[in-house]
Amino acid sequence: MRNVKLKTVVAAIASVMAAYAQADDSAVPQLADASPAQSAGTSAASDSNAGATGDQRITVVAKKLDKARSQLLPETGSTVYRFDESDIANLPLGQDTPMNQVILQAPGVVQDSYGQLHVRGDHANLQYRIDGVIIPEAMTGFGQSLDTRFTSQINLLTGALPAEYGYRTAGVVDIHTKPQDRAFTGDVSAVGGSNQYGEGGVQFGGTSGDWSYYLSGSYLTDNLGIENPISTRNALHDHTTQEKSFGYLSHAVGDASRLTFMYGVSNNSFQIPDVPGQTPNYTLTGVDPSTIDSTQLNAHQNEQNQFQVLSFQSSPSDSVNYQVSLFHRLTDVNYYPDPVGDLVFNGVAATIYRKVDSTGVQADFSDRLNEAHILRGGLFLEHERFGSDNRSSVFTVDANGNQSSSTPFTIYDPERLAGSTVGAYVQDEWQITKALVMNYGVRADATTTVTHEHQISPRLGLVYDLSPDTRMHFGYARYFTPPPTEIISDKSVASFNGTTNASPVQSNNAVLAERSNYFDAGFTHNITRDWSVGVDAYYREVTHLQDEGQFGSALVFSAFNYNQGRVKGVELTTSYKHGDWSTYLNVARSQAMGKDFITGQYNFTSDKIAYAASNWIHLDHDQKLAASAGVSYKAGDLTLGSDILYGAGLRSGFANTEHLPSYTQVNMSANESFNTTELGRFNVRLVALNVFDKVFEIRDGTGVGVGAPQWGPRRGFFLGLDKPF
User: What letters, b where the CB count within 10 A reaches 16 and e where it falls short, cover 467-495?
Assistant: First the structure.
């Protein structure tokens, strides 16, 4: 499946769509304190299937089990930010908005280079779930492996999470797929614009008897694939192609169960952008340095991700629900250097291949014991196999670190690792009074991958309705975060001694699991029926805080630990939705600090290690202030919209002691729906990104773990067409 090309996917979609067509002729993102789940048993009793046949039956079963799934995964005590289909449609690019750009509209989310996001001062550490199932994480790369178009709702859960959430806990991206109770429907879309951007997509789904199905595919090409390393409007050698496909097939088993197969595939290719005016630093036998032009280098990176999930969900009684899922994910990254240019400019030309293969099982159940208590529990087991095959051409150096030979030689550096992560949890949701709910529980986790560690983690969440319009929440969570299964071993570091790719420091202690105590409290208040506000504050005390750094010249990252960390912040949010108007505003202030590099020391120079050993330093992704806002207005078939992103600037300088200038990016869009006799209904979207052409730098190449500069996108214009059917 990993070699499937989009043309084949689209052809398959088109043929199936034609067959079904022949056979059948017939708002703003919202912040909410997570409330107690409603009883799925009540819905199961009221949604009787008596007399229902065919498509009616699958519709009833799907609706009942969708409600039951929410019963399995409570959000009590956490902070949840929700994007439904209308919220996504109101974004400038609508369903063509990359997944990370959707999440960026939530409070406390900061953008970084290469599409990375930081939630509440954490580095990456995001968990993705699709219809309740954990999708094992992909390797670090540039591209998004999930499309927004297949989602009906995206929720971002942060704060002190209930016990069912473990491992990647900075934020849980909870994705709900397009519902399984809809009649046959779909659309074809195309977007084109600046930097020769072009994207085409198709999706369709429906029901037939006891079956429901959905399939989507997209193809993207762009001459601004990775952030530009210089401030010009157009990047040099920065083309990307990205292919994605997602689908599910679900079968109703009786009146209270369903079996679902789900898959996703992405195949992304990136050129590594060139920087003009570079001066050669090394000499290569047979090559005249004056003939090497840094604008003509040809390094590139390919990323492939695929996953498959087989789930069985059932509600055998009014009080009991469960879901058991088998999952598999394969992800790999290939970096190909410019064999001459990388040697002449960087002293190393490394071909890097990394692969992680993950297989496992996840099980969740709930049982409403009585009117006051809902018992929940679950298991998670994942086995991972990591492999890397790296071949690096380097030069030898003398005792002073100066190049001693112009003839390169190759170092072959393979790595293999296998291990498992196991977790289990149990918790009780207790309705103490009509206004007060407590969710308390514990989870146990152990990992035997990069490190062999374990932890028992208590969780507590409280929700109190102070009045019909005001809700307060408090949460505490003990977290255990295993390191990613990607390693740079002592052998790898030592093998480059005496070469132009030698690390400044030889220490490389094994990466450790992160452990933290997380406290979160806040409230939401409805000023009017249409206008709501919220405030949330958090504090996280961390041992062995995880971060990532760049090893060598390739744009591939590896984890390291600070001995201690502390993260704190406050978020303000408000939204207003009335009639044809919809607006929101989020403002977040945070501080993320670390002290003492205790693993992965090869990433740093000795002076940085000495400074961090005795001083608290800002994490490289720490940004003091971030804000997002948006407004949309609907006038008949015309929708006008705009969103704004503000950032105070990521850290830079020696040991992250400085920060980059602040920036503001404004995007605007106009979406018009038309009804025609010949073509039926279709939509036209005109989009302007970075309307005021704000020139801003995301990274300047300095700071801890930062390898290269990146600039934000310049002003761009895009035209989109969408034809529903």
Answer: eeeebbbbbbbbbbbbbbbbbbeeebbeb
Place of tokens 């930081």: 118
CA 467, 468, 469, 473 dihedral sign is: positive
Evaluate if pTM is beyond 0.85.
yes
Contact 591, 569 (CB under 8 A): yes
What burial class does residue 272 get, using C-beta atoms within 10 Å of its C-beta: 0-12 exposed, 13-18 middle, 19+ buried?
A: buried
**CA 75 – CA 32 distance, rounded (Å):** 10
CA dihedral sign of residues 473, 478, 484, 487: positive
pLDDT at 59: 67
Strand partners of residue 304? 267, 332
The tally of CA atoms less than 13 A away on the side-chain side of residue 1 is: 15
- SS (HEC) of 59-116: HHHHHHHHHHHHHHCCCCCCEEEEEEHHHHHHCCCHHHCCHHHHHCCCCCEEECHHHC
CB contact set of 52 (below 8 Å; sequence gap of 6+)? 60
Distance CA 446, CA 423 (A): 7
Tokens read off for 413: 């550096």
| List of domains in the chain | 6-724 (2.40.170.20)
Which contiguous run of DSSP H or E holds residue 260? strand 257-271
Quick one: which H or E segment has residue 474?
Answer: strand 470-481
Q: Give the pLDDT confidence of 328-341 residue by residue, as tens digits.
A: 999 999 999 999 99
